[in-house]
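Chapter summary example.
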Amino acid sequence: MNIQNVAAAAGAVTERDMANAVRALAMDAVQRANSGHPGMPMGMADVATVLFNRFISIDPSTPGWPDRDRFVLSAGHGSMLQYAIHHLIGYRDMPMEALKRFRQLGSATAGHPEYGHAEGIETTTGPLGQGIATAVGMALAERMLAARFGEELVAHYTYVIAGDGCLQEGISHEAIDLAGHLRLSKLIVLWDDNHISIDGPTSLSTSMDQIRRFEAAGWDTQRIDGHDNRAIAAAVEAARQSERPSLIACRTLIGKGAPNLEGSEKSHGAPLGEAEIAAARANLGWAFEPFVIPEHIYDAWSATAARGRLRREAWEGRLSASDNADAFRNAQQHGGLPDDLAERFAAFRAEHIAGKTKVATRKASEMVLALVNAATDLTIGGSADLTHSNLTVTKGMKSVTADDFSGRYIHYGIREHAMAAAMNGMALHGGFIPYGGTFLCFADYAQGAMRLSALMRQRVVYVMTHD
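The structure predicted for these 467 residues follows.
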């Protein structure tokens, strides 16, 4: 699509007005909770507004629409950015009352976005770096599902907002290397390049040139002013046309709009205070009381939902007309395991009990995987460069490559952290049951993502050998 403002129907409302609504809600919710991170939502409000207003395809009335774009807030501490936008575009489980209960016990608006706690949250992003790495798995699943069912049914983007913390965590290096190697062109990362972390300027602890790092991993990169809406839109449009994954470095001011605290670590992880919020309202020209959003602002934000609904309805029409409709629904929506799988397992056990089969445990694992992989093509195997030690590849499995995503086996390389997180992304995306192998002693490397597999109750299989 072009990069013209699709909210024209809202009249005189500008994207700056829309972004200021996000800033106000973030300030107010964190202040009421007396806890949270207002700086990132305020700094990235312009970027997020352009992304949602002009590009992203989601439908709050049908949050699980399979061909929706995926949005991952990897910098999860800025969760009020996502909650505010969800409220403004009309997610039914994000009324103003939910924002007023930000970070309160039992509330859907947790300090970091939690999968399953609120609609439209694609993954849990508490631990920094897990979000961007999980998004790599989502983008990989999109390409693999498109290879199976065609781009008439599968053609969506995975957008990530990441911060310095996400990029400093080691898991990010493994993830961006894998994404670049596989040329996951529908993965777009918007980096909140604000030069600030909790301790102060990022220069205290890093001199990394992130642009060159991503370029070395095979990504397209751009640098922009993260408060220039034209530049933001042009960069996203260019990234959408790229044949490689994209990093957009968005130079922003943390706490944008707070006249005494913007650009300072003091706006990072604490309420701004009533006096500074009042000064920010005056500075932004936001004349409304806390938690008050005028109807014309809601009307402008509703364009995102309206556009998403139309695209979802058009997609449903294509699905209904497709010869692959039943197979797609079975894989994407129903889990797709054959009805006789339990009987196959029973026969398998009976055969080997009767034959007193004596093999190494990893060989026994391979035999079970062979049975499962023959029964369903939903399983996607892989290993952290230990395929013939873990015995995770079975007969007939073809490798996934940047030129051919139709295979069923992923060579994750020596990247246990990224393998585990990417498998979470594949499972969350839907359409596949991923399994991946490594030696048990490397389980600690994968532990962060394994914990999230459990918390999110995802169907991810870890094959650990050589105890």
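To summarize the output: The chain has 17 helices and eleven strands.
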